[in-house]
Amino acid sequence: MESTPAADNRMSTRAAERARRVPPATAWQRRTAFTACAWMVVFAAFHAYWALGGTFGLPPGESLVDNTPLFVIDLIAIPMNLGGAALALALVQRWGLLFPRGLVLTGAWGCALLMVFHALPAMVDLAIFLSGQREEPLTGEDRFSVLAYEPYWMLGGLLFTVLALAFQRRTRQPAALPAEED
Description:
Layout: H1 5-21, H2 27-51, H3 68-90, H4 101-130, H5 140-171
Helix pairs in contact: 2-3, 2-5, 3-4, 4-5
């Protein structure tokens, strides 16, 4: 389908009208979005650090530079995290309303579910560990994963869950009122 100036103008007019009808994000929603944005930027920075040969936060003796599949995944993760940072801001900024609502919500819920499901097994392990029910002690690598790395993933998932719910509610169209009969 070819884009014409008239069609582009109608689309931008509809997006601007939709943006005017949607109430602005609240202060707590903006703070949550900035926190989620920072979460993504920090994770992108770690991936860049690892891609450049850094090893902090990796299992002992591990380097992504020496592991081609992990190195490629790491390089893909950097722009994905930066895109996630932009998505977090789009959920509370007026410019985020210029994108189709379904696209923004799909991204937000996708981030939320990916992060929560990534961390969920370790959160069960963390609960078992904290309750003293774990029979074997955590190794150094497991301790880092269960006490730091996976809770960080869960935090990101919870931040995006809150943002997705808030955006979904804030941008929901009110039901049309029934026409009055004479």
